[in-house]
Amino acid sequence: MLQTIELTKRYEDGLLALDALSLEIRPGEIFFLLGANGAGKTTTINLLLNFIEPTSGKALINGIDVMEQPLETKKHVAFVSENVMLYGNFTARQNLDFFARLGGKTHLAKSDYYNVMRRVGLQEEAFERKLKTFSKGMRQKVGLAIAIIKDASNIVMDEPTTGLDPKSAAELMQILLRLRDAGKAILMCTHDLFRAKTVADRVGIMKEGRLVMLRTREEFLQDDLERIYLNYMQEAVL
Amino acid sequence: MIRLIAKKDFLLNLLSVRFIIGFVLCLVIIPFTVTVSVDDYLARVRIYEIEQKKADDGMKKARVWSAVRPVIVTRPEPLSIFSAGITNNAGNSVKIAFDACPLFPSGHISTRDNPLLNAFFSIDFSKVIAILISLIALVFAYDSITREREDGTMKLSLTGQVSRISFLSGKLAGLLLTLLPILLFCYLLACLIIVVNPGIALSAADWGGIALLFFSSAIYMLVFILLGMFISGIVKSSSSSIIVSLLCWIWFLFLTPNISTYLSQSIVKTPLYDNVQSVMHDYDKAFEEDYFAVWRRIRNEMGIKNLNFYNNRDGEDGLREITGGTRTAPLFLLRLYPEIIPLTLSNADKKWALQRNYLGELEKQQRLQQRIALLSPSELFRQITEAICSTGAGNFLKYMEQIRYYREGVIRYFTDNKLFASSLYFTPQPLEEYPAEEEIASLANEEERQARIAKNSWMYPCLDTSNVPVYRQQQPFSLPGALDGAFTRLAALFGLVVLLLAAMIASFMKYDVR
Known about the structure:
heterodimer; A: alpha/beta; Rossmann fold; 2 domains; 6-stranded mixed beta sheet; 4-stranded antiparallel beta sheet; about 25% strand; B: mainly alpha; two-stranded antiparallel ribbon
């Protein structure tokens, strides 16, 4: 379970990037965090993953404070970032092996890596190819495979569909659904409203560091999510 | 986790183009440099052997004590192949004379056979290591942090079971794993070229010195790895990092040494040696006047009207060798030298007092230059290698001090054995063989007179100089000695490692991975 309690981040230049965010993403749930650039989505992720320190409040992973026990919390979380370059001179399998070991999975066989790569839809011939020859979509799949092989109970994704072709994005959503069904708590920060409507269990809209709207799947299917979102965005522009 | 990251970085580095370029550079530059240094060393050894033989012959063939002038020829150290220091710019021999204290050596200075080619400088192994290894270390380390950030792999890594300190340690270990073999390869290549050369014999202590050089080079390399990582940890992009790294490299390797020399010369002004020589010349003139005053007084006291030397060989440094003629000349010299020698030695002391002041200023300037140069790890490394190879200014000054001390020992030997007061000081011919003036006058014809007075020095045996104190070759190279000479600077270099490590950790702990 991913949880933030009154989580606030003010940067050194005085910018209030996150303002008392309280959020809870439960096991078996896909949570889409929407918002314009600078709304505070990535800051939320950075705080959850302990990349930056909060000004106040708490970020918890499976009930453990990320500030107090960072290494312990990292056992329970996997991360997929927007632009996964990985190590170009390593093959897909070597990249997977390295990050799996970093994540604590030290006894995996080659077949385990191949299975995960098949699961994310990577072609067999690419398994032992150097990553520098991969397209962005293929690299994104390897990034997702890295997150899956860690087998953490929580997955945090920062705009993973950016730059993906529609087919790859659709495949990614299918994988997300399977992960949710496996009981993972998934936080996905994105601009992709269409995907949110397709797979999200809950949607939150952020604006200027605050969570300004929170809807369950039933609620946002009844409302016109696009209109609500655009209203918030327009206000942000104004 | 540290091992895992180190292994990953090692493998990635091995697969990189910069590794191949670095390796090829070492493969081309090191053999070339070492071959040139070995040739230079062998040439210096040949010159040493020739000059040493000349010096030994000079001692063996001396027939009068005034001709005994021990010449100390400096034997090149095999380790000078690694770091020539100032040995190529200093002479290789010192002549012990009574009329002057040796300030600097004279003799052969390493230059090319063709002086027109001297504009092209040649560099030794340690300088190549200083330039090449620092550059390779920076080229490998400049993007160690920024690249991970730019590729998004740092975030992914830090999401694993790895702390920032482990991540950093792994990166550092990976760089060391990559670069240490390159450094080791350079040394092995250099040693191989030396070992296969039959003209060079390395002692166990020399091998210890090479091991110490390798150790120092490894610390030096570590400084630049840490510098590159530190820069990589404080800038945002790899492009900024490479620019800052290269600027630092140029500053440390090329600007600081020149600036330190310029500053030291500007702050500590030394008198021109021409001025010192001019005052010394005045002293010599005064000495000459005293000398001739004594000469005239003794001649008058002895009632000598015409003082003639039959066969006379004399030199500016006090050499006099006479043979033949009547007894008047040797009796005159027998009275002259015991009075002149103290004046000669006193004049030499007066001149040395001037030279010592001059040398003191030079040393002050050199010390200041070394202190300012401590701002550069490359200069520190140069000083360390020179101290290990006994080719630095410090060793040189100590060597000259030992030679001056040796000169005092020679003077003491002459005084204790009353050689200045002996007729053998100026003539190999026994006094009783010299005919009196009256005896010559009593001889009837010129032929008989000539037969009585015509003598040559080759008619007399050479002196036995085996008891003259022998200069013990500048303390032979020893590992503890080398370590002792380099210890302070090694400690300073190590201190720099600790400082950079602390700075790097401190900056990376706050590093914004976003």
